[in-house]
Fold these 4 entries.
Entry 1:
Amino acid sequence: MAPTLVALGALIISFVSFVVVRSLQKKRDTKGFPLPPGPPPLPFVGNVIGIDPDHPWLAYSRWGTEYGEIVYSRLFSQDIVIINSERVAHDLLDRRSHNYSTRPAGLVHVLGLLGQDFSSIFLPYSDRWRLHRRIFHQAFHLDAASSFHPIQMRNAHGLILNLLASPEAYGTHLHTFSTSTIMSIVYDYSTASLDDPFIALVERSIEINVRELRPEVAAVITEFPILEKLPPWFPGASFVRGAILQRTLVPMVVDIPFEHVKKNMAAGTAVPSMVSDALNRIPLEAKDEEVAALEKAIKEASAAGYVAASETTRSTLYVFLLAMVLYPKVQARAQAEIDSVIGETLERLPDWADRACMPYINAIIQETLRWFPVVPLGIAHAAINEDVYEGYYIPKGATILANAWSMARNPEKYPDPTKFIPERHMSKVVEEPSKHGPDNASFAFGFGRRVCVGRHVADASLFAAVVSILAVFRVERAPGWNVGPDAEGVKWTGGLTTCRHPVFPCIFTPRHAKERVSQLVKTQC
């Protein structure tokens, strides 16, 4: 028998034996309370069958319809509690945030294997996380976020110039916009308009994170630690190969832009950015070890922030363009609103002062976040201690998933939830608060103490891109591309985040002379 087959056979025997032993060891004292309802688990493996590993939120949403707002499942020995409603998410993740603000131990372990145990987004609830959070808050709180508006609009103008030059490469242009915007905000790092090698480096790193940083992957790796010891050439060892590559990428992704800021500060040429401002806040009287610790935290927090912002902004803009292609009447109404503010002949390009006069554009952004949440399950929380909620027992260490996909498709709050209807977010008089939560898509940014600290910056970047694209272009369906108005048949990537894949064909038709647009960009920069 070939050595590879012998090794594979030994692995299978070890796998089965390990599962049996762990299952027999699994005992639980629920203090007399039942677990939340959920699908019956299979022996040993739990609720593996029937779940698309790349799109688990679809099965979780079906379970929500059958079993209710809170659902229990198990993947091998890992308890998983799925929250399918905003009501329960607010009750647990907001009002009991003291117990649900950490991350699953398995996810943290996988992060370490990828060389990213510093990532603020996935750090356990700890003093280290609180330090990172403070650094983020100082840069990204609501009042501070407005200081980045010129950067965001400048990059949005670069986006429309790129689309004018080569509209067929719009996917590349969206990635350039999202990455260059957050890089400028965090590091004052100017990327090339096309084919920037650093952007390519970041994209490779993001692809690995999206694929591997999922609770389902963490549960398997935690249950079978032998998998992380496999040689990279072994069949099925894709995680190992990805981890090896990621550990070579991470130092470059983290160090290159940070050293760029320090070099500029030493030369006296640095301009305000998240990193330079944070470094300038280090007290002059701080001891060397304190300075080193603060610099390390600033470097780690900034790297985690720009990687996350780059991917989610780009994916959300894909959803926006898909909606404009499938709902031309929505696009026409939005452009009529823009033209009423800046003139039908493009007297100028939209700016920040115009936002208050564009309620329909703001509604489109809200509906984009709701229609297809690009982080469908958010980032997993974990129960620090056991808990009882509405008579159901939640085990200590359970992975807690806030199913944003299910919340976005709540027909009681969002009638015809599969349709793109911005009007549902327009201001209206409400006599009493809804039992389903505020009438917006805030669930897209998470809950509790782990809510996305960059949400104000993300919202502003979306406005800059959306209003600029609609002011300059009419986005149309390419001939022969037949997809229903509710996006039936559209394929989405799987993983931690999701977006339309492959890039769908669409046509960007300038609404005004290219020369006029270019002239306005130059004069308004």
Note: The domain at 14-524 is CATH 1.10.630.10 (Cytochrome p450).
Entry 2:
Amino acid sequence: MANWLLYAAALGLVTSGAYSAHAQESASIAQPTSEGEDHVVLEADYIYEVRDENSIVAEGNVEALYEGRILRADRIIYNKTTDRVRATGNVVIIDTDGSQQFADEIEVNSNLADGYAIGFSARLPDGATVVANSAIRQTDGINALEQAIYTACPVCDEHTTPTWSLRARRTVLDQENQMISYRDAVFEVLGIPVFYFPYLAHPDPTSERRSGFLVPSGGVSSKLGTFYQQPYYWALSESSDVTIAPLVSANVNPLLELDIRKRFYSGGIKINTSITNEADFDSDGERFGDEKWRGHIYGKGLFAISPEWQWGFGVETQTDDLFDRRYDLDGQGERRGLYSSQPRRLLSQIFAVGQGDNYYTDAAVLSFQGLRENDADGALPTVAPVFFGEKYWDMGDYGFAAVNVSSAMLTRDVRADSQRVSVGGDWSNLSVLPGGFTFKPFAEIRADYYALDEAVSGEPDVSRAVGNAGVKIAYPLIRPGKIVDIMVEPTIMAAWGFSNTNDSAIPNEDSLLYEFDEGSLFEANGFGNYDLYEGDGKASAGVTARAVFKNGPEFSTTLGRRWRSRADPNFDVASNLDGRSSDWVAESTADFGTALRVDTRVRLDDDGFKLNRIDARLTTNYKRLRAVGQYYNISERISPLGTPDEGIFLRGELSVTDRYSLVYGQLRDIAANLNAKREFGIAYEDDCSRFEIIYQRSELVDRTLGPSESIQFRFSLKSIGDFGSSEFD
């Protein structure tokens, strides 16, 4: 610790022969303490000693530097008797983290750590500001502010009213316990008191994880009535924590929700779960049926076995199909492992993945739970296991080769079981021919064995061999220019495969909704999965073009079509491989940077170019508008359901002023003439907060839960988080 008494000795050397009022202009002193200790550098316009008071005085542009801290003031007095430093006039302390503290007057001990300040204010590293009439800093780590105001909003002058602030009669920071407490705290918005807290405490934002209450939520719902949920964060250890969030409501019994996290040396887990003892209830909160224990579990984990191997799990289950929708629980549909679930289908899985320089392997056990109205859990399969392994070789001038093994074992309580084992291999090579043509020959072969339920399929087992051999030829053309670079690549693919590869006894488990498009245009097998295979002769032709302008915009498109030697009755119209020719498939992109990007995929009828399908997505972030729009249209001819499907999704925000913006969103099922979701509202945002008022309405009906609407309020505070929300539906 620095000893200011040594600076008196140093000052004596500088001002040799000085008397009680002798002054030294433009003085600078740097005096080390004993060996290994830090030293203070003191600079000022004048430095002199007042011997009668046993003090050293520095005046005019005073600056003291100690252990990275900087103290600036108009005047500093160091009393050698009390070992105290008093600074007055435009006092500024700059700490090692860059935070700045201001005061009219301060008095501290010699290490600038213990003392008090009058007219105190501070600018924290994250941009927040704290102001107090007085501040006391003690060596035991207890710091107190009287009549304090805290805000993360910019405060340029004394006449500025921050968007939000937290005002308290007394604020105490316990550095040892890393807690901040407030007495008689008032939360203000634009200077208007909104919430009053007799006592409020929370961990220091700069501290490590600490237990404590989180921001609550509450409101009024037609399903739950008046409700309130109070989360409590419990830091169990450095590697685990749990958030306990009981929900109490007027219409139904309490619900307890938990978020559990645990980190291990090789990975971690995250689980969200809830439990309640309640009957069913509808959108109006009307209860029916018997009370029983209900709940849900959504969780995942991932662990490293070695640098090349991992294992993990995902769990998704709930007691009732509509449990998540009744309590507005989030999380259904998130990816929690190697495989993703479909909408309103829960998927639990345990898996392992290995990948090295020349191999890839994964294995998983899957279990499904249906949440749709017509789902029968017994008809959904349990897959134990699904496996894929591949080993590949780079043979230099002879190309690339690979062998693979795959299996899928499906069992059901209702409908047929099936087990498949497949062994295959493939080879390809790539060379450049004279004139710039690229030449890629390829071949693949696979053997499949299916063990079937004879009572359903009519056969106990089926075996088959499938394969293709062919060539892909492309001619890439590039024309650089002063304004635009143009690239055009016409491509053809021709292949011949085994005939009669699809046995009607083989159940189609993995290719039900598969569609041939531009992504598989030049693949020998148009189906990317196993149960259906495209054999016989086929040829594809297409062209890819791209234009890149020097000033930024880029345009690209791919257009092509496929022809087959014969029709396969196992391929339906939706697959785009029925008959002897496919529809035209195309995709295009127009990219103007953040201002505008348009991505479009279409499928045009092979006879007359009638539009069978279009998927279009537009995104923009131009000046005051941020928006995304998607449109899809599937004709009755190719729809898997046999009916046309059309819809649109819109989401955008238009800044009316620098701080106010209009928010709009819509998910509309045009074919069914209903809005799955529609919202509009107003948002306010500045440097320290965002405030939204959003009206939402959904016209969807799912059994006992019908159309709903809500008014949502959300206030996000910089450095604190989401203050609260209110919902009505």
Note: Residues 416-592 form one domain.
Entry 3:
Amino acid sequence: MIAPSVGPEGVWILADQLHPQQSALASLSTLSPDRVPVILIESHRWASSRNHHQQKLVLVWSAMRHFAQELQQRGYPVTYVEADSYAEPLQTWAKQHQLQQIRLMQPADIPVRDEIEKLRSTLPCPLLILENNHFLWTADQFIEWASGRKRLLLEDFYREGRRRFRILMDGPKPLGGRWNYDRENRHPPKPGMRYPRPLTFSPDAITQAVIAKVRQHYGHHFGSLEGFGWAVTRAQALQVLDHFIHERLPHFGPWQDAMQAGEDFLFHSLLSPYLNLGLLTPHEVIAAVEQAYHRGGIPLPSAEGFIRQILGWREYMRGFYEYQMPNGYAQNNFFGHQRPLPEFFWTGKTDMACLQHTLDQIRRHGYAHHIQRLMVLSNFALISGIQPQAVEAWFQDVFIDSYDWVMQPNVIGMGLFADGGMLSTKPYAASAQYIRKMSDYCRHCRYNPSEKVGKQACPINTLYWDFLLRQRSLLAPLGRMKWVLIHLDRMEPELKAQIQAQAAAWWDPLQSALDEQSPSHLQSV
């Protein structure tokens, strides 16, 4: 622990650092709370910098205001400011308390770090940045693990994490004798299955005030405010965790990849917004799931499948972000895709049932689960040839759990393969057959998921095969693409020509519509 300096010190808390044991607060825990001034700044410039989903603005600001209230109740002298930017409130606060130093937990997002570095010279006292303790791995630990490796695979990292943190282990071996249970966790939706309702919370006076503010000043932003029920305090987030473990986790594993029309949440945890705000930590979430498994009633495939998402996927994405972002990772465009984002990504007006359902769900909640994000949204963008940076910007705008560290590797790397294979060994490109297998969307769609060309052909099929034809030279060196390219090469030349013609015809009307619009609402930043 870093010892306090001789003079008074204050703590600056960012919007995604809302945990009482976050490192900046924890570093001054030996002092009485009344001797530690705290500031939180509600930044209007941040709110205006993107077309943030309206529910995300409410969630972030309500959670900040509730956290400030909780700190006041613990005895901290809290300053809460609504301002355009950070500089002036920090200067006024530091001078008011005659601070000798400001402590801040390192921001998770690199653009925020860059912004804060520019502030240093304007502050009346030094700024001390402390390690971000809202992840299991530190950035340096991941970089040390990754350096010198010939491959950076999630599976390798996940197994190392299981060993390092002794999670679901039996001595040196994984519990059950296997590292993962993916084969057991790929069930399509089951007809007639009933899903538990998510735990939601009625907006209190603080949240209602934030809703009114967002409606007044940011009502033009994407999404709907109707039915806002997200947790906005740590106590509520802990209730959501408990509800997930008892009501949803037992069935989470087998159906974690399923998609079903009219069901927005299935058995998913809905914990990512709270983890990314700091209301929950990955340590306590993993520990709660592991303890529930050992108590009985939670199948190992469900416990392992969920822990993989946090210990594996979430930690890997953050580590990969720290490892690659300084190298210009965000600008990668392996396939050279340049098409703009279609208007229906904002309006949801499309005849493709899989996209229509997913986009409507995002408009209402700011949420879609990982398979909808990867195999519906990202898959469509990839095979259509949409510019990766436009897709990533849209993902940042519309999701309630979006942050730079989450979206850059997920969209640029995993979703669109724009990094050329740094993060995954093959593109997650798929025809409509995947969606037909893992969902019931195709039953409600006017298109036929078995046809590649013709009036009833699913556009995802047409665009998928067109993508393979357009990008064959770049796909050929990827070993895992071998068999699908063999199938492509056996395709009759006439069918290939039909596919390419229909793909071009499908896109051209979209392009014409885009050209007639003012582009302002398509610009995310």
Note: The domain at 9-130 is CATH 3.40.50.620 (Rossmann fold).
Entry 4:
Amino acid sequence: MSSPFGTWTSPFTPDRIAASSPRIDGSAFVADEIWWGESIPAEGGRLTVRSSTGAEILPAPWSARSRVHEYGGGAWTADADGTLYFVDAEDQRVHRMPRGGVPVPLTPPGPAHGGLRLQSGRLFAVREDLSVSPHRRAIIEIPTDGSASDRPALLKTLVEGESFYAHPALSPDGSRAAWVEWSGDRMPWQRASLVISDGTARTELSTRAALQPEWTADDEIVYSDDPSGRWALHRQRVSGAQAVGTAEQIIDDDADTGYGLWVLGNRWYRPLADGRVVAVRTNGRDRVVVIDPDGSAHRIPLPADGHVSVDDVAGSRVLLSGNSSTTEPGVWCVDVDTGRVEAVAGAAPTDPAWMPPASEVLVDGSHGPVHAFAYPPTNPSAHAPAADDELPPYIVLVHGGPTAHVTGAASAAVAFWTSRGIGVLDVNYGGSTGYGRAYRERLDGGWGVVDVDDVIAAARGLADAGLADPARIAIRGGSAGGWTVLSSLVRGGTFAAGISRYGVVDLQMLSAHSHDFEAHYIEGLVGPLPEAEALYVARSPLTHADRIDVPVLLMQGADDRVVPPAQSEAIRDALATSGVEHEYVLYPGQGHGFRSSETIIDALERELAFLGRVFGFTPAR
């Protein structure tokens, strides 16, 4: 069928997108089953635990979600007998639930918990107490019999203070522990220490941005670090709580085994009992490799190639979860000896007739090369009129963080646009992870400049190549991505419209209300206060809202504690004063990110209608 771009009939309806957007949250071998965490959009984003038998392990209304460091992670684990340990989303206490039983609390009310780790029958967690000043965080060991639920003194503290902690790991003989630790004036990808303790003494290893310690023997620990500019695996011999000699890098190539430590619980590698290591290597996209003891490696042919987590191992079997450029997000079980790959959950193959494969794009920017993924309009039942020489409209996506990255994964959320005749360009601007420390640090001191220059360069590169209509390019992003959206609109001249989801608009306001984890984040991205106060004002989109001259759609969660509604409402008021076409939507019950089906559906419907008005097409119903 011949019809203009943007008007194509699509099976990817907003309600289908909402139903197809569950988030996979870890997986584990449990007896003869495989369990995994999965969000349920239809239940407000409640996170349950499911089994490969088809059973739902964690029933409603319980939801496993942590609020430690605000972004949480590591909210559940299980033992071999099928006992589930989880952090309840409501009270943030750790609970134990025997299979088929009733959850009982293991920790007292008050503090939040996350990053659960069960080793040798011992349960560890990261604890965060925001009820005291200054706020306190710790790594604790929790008795699994429930005795500490009303007696905090029975909780064993491994380490406690004002610093931040992650990735507790117990040595095989149980005599020593290791963890990652960083101070509040740095983000963990800037500087994080690996600490080893035997209960009486502690040693901080010489690391730059350590991640995920794992004991491979009582006298040997493996971890990831990036002293050479890429997160790579290192092996360190230890004696007591002391390092012996220097660390040995296990493998060296132009890729990262690691990511920004936004959430607790992610695993980028797992040692096998025979000395091999299964690891994720990221250079834009992910690949999973098996590293032999001699340092040689071979790739596992696996569909998962985006934000892959190596969740669990059992013998030669490995559980991995993540995204894929050819399937839906899922959980895979891989036998590294036979090469057999089994899709356990999700991972349904996508139809390339409807789901366009992402093309890796590299354009020259004023600060260096800019990486992106392009998805062209794709619909087997529709095409634009040949005689019109019409170029398609595009929407440029800007990820949040800003220290994060996109991977070119197949996504029904992308197909929502491309199947209607709207192309998508997903940009990894300078500051993104996945391309090494130098690319990541390109944004240092340059937030609001480098990211804006890069998304503009990517959009113009697409138009210059004759792939997009230069008069019909919109930009859309959330959180830090919303900041880049609005900053790009202030710059003007490239984008015909902007969509900001819970975007940052005022740096001083963000700094004043920032939570602990990100309290000093902006200092690295812009500059320290009060010295850089003038720069905070000059960089903020709110300061220059009068320069925005294209339509803007603003969407915000009413319960957002990271970027409160006051930010979106401030730019709304400024746009109203300037007489700029805009729409503002506040979603009750939603926080920093939209999780409920109703909100996801409404937001997509509004975005599509908004682009139709701006670009002059009537979307098919």
Note: The chain has ten helices and 35 strands.
